[in-house]
Design brief:
By secondary structure, this protein is of the alpha+beta class. Helix content is 44%, strand content 20%. Strand 3, helix 5 and strand 4 form a beta-alpha-beta unit.
Length: 168
Amino acid sequence: MHKNPGHAAAAGSAAHAPSSASAATDAGKPTGERGRTALAVGVVEKIAGMAAREVNGIHALGSGLARTFGAMRDRVPGGKSGVGRGIKAEVGEKQTAIDIALVVEYGVVIPELARQVRENIIDAVERMTGLEVVEVNIAVNDVHLPDEPDVEEEEEETVVAGQRPKLK
């Protein structure tokens, strides 16, 4: 295999300097096409969490165990925010899929609530990220009854600044 030294030099300079055709093509592109934007999974999860919380009839996001651990994690200084709690997202370059776990208030019509949550999440995520939301799967894990204490309220009653729980 014999390389032409003149050809190699020309090829090397072409690799470092854009050709006039390529420069003209780049200049004609909108600024949004001149690079890549990568979104972390947590970004989509937080947006979806905020959008879901805007719908009336949702008591909490996540399963009971996740909410208990989340309430404890929220109290730790520097702990992770609970906005995305109960939400799992898969994020690709152009599409995302979201799974959300809900605790609903007693008396709400669950299919209607699920439709509203799904629409709100899709609207917010697509508007804010530019990703296409291919699916939003909703799992209703519990119904909060009016006379039930909240998980966070139970935690506050049992753990107050390291003291033993009060006896009732």
